[in-house]
Amino acid sequence: MPAGLSIKLVAPNGKSWDQPTGLFIDNEFVPSSGQEITTIDPATEETIAVVHAASAEDVDRAVNAAYGAFRSAAWKDMSAANRGILMTKLADLIEANKELFATIDAWDNGEYIAGGSPRT
């Protein structure tokens, strides 16, 4: 990932991770040509992170990249069975990272997960 497009975050429950802050376009994180968005912990009013915000130009780039990927031979010619295998791998990755996703979502909503349950 290019420098400046991720930050190290540590949630109130001690869980830490490298958080991408760029836009995911054409299978890579890239800086925006627009503004930034600051995420705030509603419980403390402290900044959690500053991330890139997509401009209309960035959205156009993302849509064009997605359209190109969808129309590519690699995807278009892939069998339904192989697409299903990819979807299963995605589901497995989500399952393997569910605690991190729950931590991020809870923190962004001003709650914290400790011992597997939210607390305010």
UniProtKB/TrEMBL annotation:
GO molecular function annotations of the record: aldehyde dehydrogenase (NAD+) activity
InterPro entries: Ald_DH/histidinol_DH, Ald_DH_N, Aldehyde_DH_dom
Positions of the Aldehyde dehydrogenase domain: 29-113
Pfam families referenced in this protein's UniProt entry, alphabetically: Aldedh (PF00171)
Origin superkingdom: Eukaryota
One annotated GO biological process: polyamine catabolic process
PANTHER family assigned: 2-AMINOMUCONIC SEMIALDEHYDE DEHYDROGENASE, ALDEHYDE DEHYDROGENASE ALDH (AFU_ORTHOLOGUE AFUA_8G02310)-RELATED
Protein's name according to its UniProt entry: Aldehyde dehydrogenase-like protein
Organism, as annotated: Tolypocladium paradoxum
